[in-house]
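== Sequence entry ==
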Amino acid sequence: MPIPTKPAAASTTNTATPPLPELLGVVQVPGRGSTAIFNTSNGSVTAAIGDAIGNSGWRLQSASNDQAQISRQGVIHQLSLSSR
């Protein structure tokens, strides 16, 4: 008589979103693109538009006034200094 077997466990992928970097400041210089300063789990980092934000997995999309927009794998977050 055959011994029943358990079905193989479905493979899972880690889809957890890494923690959001904390926006510390936005630097705007006339005639140049904006940069933003973030606090990440590995310390403070500066990123220009299009740059990775340290090794957080997030990328800076835009920055102006007191806000920055970041993205990761199609997920977009708007960060604001005033909401700290």
In short: The mean pLDDT is 85.
